[in-house]
Amino acid sequence: MIIKKASLSDLRKIVPLFDAYRMFYKQQSNIEDALAFLKARFENQDNVVFLALEGNEPIGFMQLYKTFSSVSLQSFYILNDLYVNPEYRKRGVGEALLNSAKTFCSEQNAKGLALETAKDNPAQHLYERMGWRKDTDFFHYFWKNDQD
Q1: Poorest-confidence range of 37-46, 76-85, 125-134?
Q2: Are 14 and 49 in contact (CB under 8 A)?
Q3: What is the DSSP letter of 8?
Q4: In contact, 51 and 4? CB cutoff 8 Å
Q5: Burial bucket for residue 54 (CB in 10 Å: 0-12, 13-18, 19+)
Q6: For 98-121, what is the mean pLDDT?
Q7: Above 70 in pLDDT, residue 148?
Q8: Which one, of 113, 105, 87, lies nearest residue 17 by Cα?
Q9: Which ranges carry the N-acetyltransferase domain (predicted)?
């Protein structure tokens, strides 16, 4: 298995995984919109994507977004998306992707990584085993714009 920092040229390999990730979170499959969304993220340099490959086959990906903390005066990354093809789960792919994100953040001298996940996501065990800590100090709120 190889983990690589993806670029726009890897888009066609990432899109099917990204679409499957969205379906895992109860969204309708939409390859065209997934492609357009990721293409815009790469072109605007909004994201950092790591791609896991077995040979030439894409088996997982992780997408990070950079943000900033005014309190600490540092940048940090939001680990927004992590997905491993179901037939490759429990083989260390998720752990390898997470370790790539940790290394990348260290190289960027970033404060760290933040993530949120569904309450029933079994990957929580992996996160906690790898040193991630559940936030018990702060509440997280979200305002939804209902103008769709």
Answers
A1: 125-134
A2: yes
A3: G
A4: yes
A5: middle
A6: 91
A7: no
A8: 87
A9: 1-148
